[in-house]
Amino acid sequence: MQYISDQLGVHPVHISRAAPKYLSTSLGEYIRQHKLKKAIPLLLDPNNSLTKIAYQTGFSDQSHFNRVFNSYFNMNPSLYRKEFNKK
Fold first, then answer.
1. Range of 13's domain?
2. Taking the CA of residue 64 as centre, how many other CA atoms within 13 Å lie in the half-sphere pointing to its CB?
3. What are the b/e assignments for 5-37, b being 16+ CB within 10 Å?
4. Distance between CA atoms of residues 70 and 32, nearest Å
5. How many domains does the chain have?
């Protein structure tokens, strides 16, 4: 949030209040969705570790990545990878 605030020259509280008007969701939710969109193609490459993917997509650690991923897809990233690679 601070990074966005600094880049736009707008106070973080103002950004948090205005974001839902333009994004149809909270700024935090939008950022999580964006991170997961970046993670999906990385998951398709079995050479990428889940820890590496978590850090590359901006999660603080693999555990946080797993929890967020599971909350969206109702499965953990490793199971998603296995299911996709079956096809």
1. 2-86
2. 11
3. eeeeeeeeeeeeeebeeeeeeebeeebbeebbe
4. 12
5. 1
Structure tokens that stand for 47 in this block: 């050479």
pLDDT of residue 3: 84
Q: Supply the pLDDT for residue 87.
A: 59
* Residues of the chain where predicted confidence (pLDDT) is lower than 50: none
Q: pTM to 2 decimals? A: 0.83
Q: How many residues are present in the chain?
A: 87
Please say whether the beta carbons of 27 and 1 come within 8 A: yes
Amino acid of residue 5: S
Q: What is the CATH number of the domain that holds 12?
A: 1.10.10.60
| DSSP code string of the chain | -HHHHHHHT--HHHHHHHHHHHHSS-HHHHHHHHHHHHHHHHHTSTTS-HHHHHHHTT-SSHHHHHHHHHHHHSS-HHHHHHHHHH-
